Description:
Layout: E1 8-12, H1 20-28, E2 41-46, E3 59-61, E4 64-75, H2 78-96, H3 102-116, E5 121-132, E6 137-140, H4 145-159, E7 164-166, H5 173-182, E8 190-200, E9 207-211, H6 218-225, E10 228-237, E11 241-246, E12 251-256, H7 258-261, H8 272-303
Antiparallel strand pairs: 1-6, 1-7, 2-4, 3-4, 4-5, 5-6, 8-9, 8-10, 10-11, 11-12
Helix pairs in contact: 1-4, 2-3
Amino acid sequence: MLWFKNAIVYQLNKDNLFDTQAITNAVNACPFVPCGNTDSMRSGWVSPFGESQDNPLVLDNNGQMLLRLKKEIKILPSSVIKQALAEKVTQQEQLFNRKLKKAEKLSLKDEVYIDLLPRAFSKYQFFWLWIDTVNKRVIVDSSSFKQAEDILALLRKEMGTLALTPYASDTPLEKTLTKWVKESLSFPPIILGDEIELKDAVEDSIVVKCKNQEINSQEIFVHIDSGKQISKLKLLDERGMSFILNRDYTLKRIKFDNAILDKNEDFLPEESNAKLEADFMLMISQLTDTFKSMQKIIEEIITV
């Protein structure tokens, strides 16, 4: 399903420009190829429209580009490797009539792993990537910075360079969110949700998590007054979505309202490609509005 569940936002450095043709060429140069007999993992681009060879690998609508990455991981349980290794060690020790050295066992472990790979099961993961050439940013649908960096590395490999930095501001977001809640500031259409996480400003391991909680309540103010700062906060965009904003500026658990999800339900089954493109434009319109509002709110809170 297209609709992003997470958003890690990267901003392109000002001295660089997006080239849609260069991005398309880079994607076309790295299509997904299944793992070979000796591969433990492979990743590559597949079409957003489906994995048919007739579908393009890039959806480009006036500089708004949608990519989809497929990742194959070979699954080899450690218990299977351990059992196969034990059998091979026993065979070798009987053959040589002596105990094997540690280095020899490590070498056998590599051999066992390579022998088992062709018979291993495959696990597949898919990741969406939205490239906004208008606002010079990249948004990855991933909950992990490491995973996002691995995805971007595939683009950098072919493009040579892609100078991106995760979105951030000079003021730590914990202070901004804490001020927002503590001073009961109001910024419609973005409103406070009912979920919050606070961490001690000195001891990061001291964490308070609250769900189904009135955010502007005395209970939350007590934690703030004791030195804790907000590290996660659920927010609602009354235009059609909710999300958890983390102190590293990532958005997680994004949920779009049914009123948004159902807008393009009139498409016929044979119009699936057109529906995907319409859904994409609808989604990025919503996310763009939310990003713009959040950026303005953060700037306003910092200057208050």
